[in-house]
Amino acid sequence: MHDQSVAVFDHFLGVLSAILAKAEAHCEARRIDPAALLGFRLFPDMFSLTRQVQLASDFAKGAAARLSGVANPAMPDTEATFAELQDRIARTRAFLATVTPAMVAGAETRMVTFRTGGQDMTLPGQTYLSRVALPNFFFHLATAYNILRHNGLELGKRDFIGY
Length: 163
Hints:
Layout: H1 6-30, H2 34-38, H3 49-68, H4 82-98, H5 101-104, E1 111-116, E2 119-124, H6 125-150, H7 157-161
Antiparallel strand pairs: 1-2
Helix pairs in contact: 1-3, 1-4, 1-6, 3-4, 3-6
């Protein structure tokens, strides 16, 4: 379970960090106000780049916490700069580093309760991971990537995969 959850979240948060570093360099090179990129949305009813990063962090740390049975670290959504988003990613990855394989051993059958749509839902850990946590994490990661591609960043599949 650790390889399917914590290790995946950690790797792709590293990818997100690298992509954000490229975005910050893009803003500096083209003299773009970073706030314009951080606040960009693909469509008016979608979340901004900043919120996409916050939500990717939330799904990673929330899933690791639920699967391991430890408290989910609180992180207020106050980031307004690339540096602050990088710090959030670093804090999320530092938390993930504390979740050992032994802590999630057997989590595939452990019942996990989470809140969605204003209601509590309980699923076996493997179902929660594969049908809720990972899809939501990758949705927000891909949307952040797409916001940056849409705004002219030269990113490719290797940037998204991280190899």
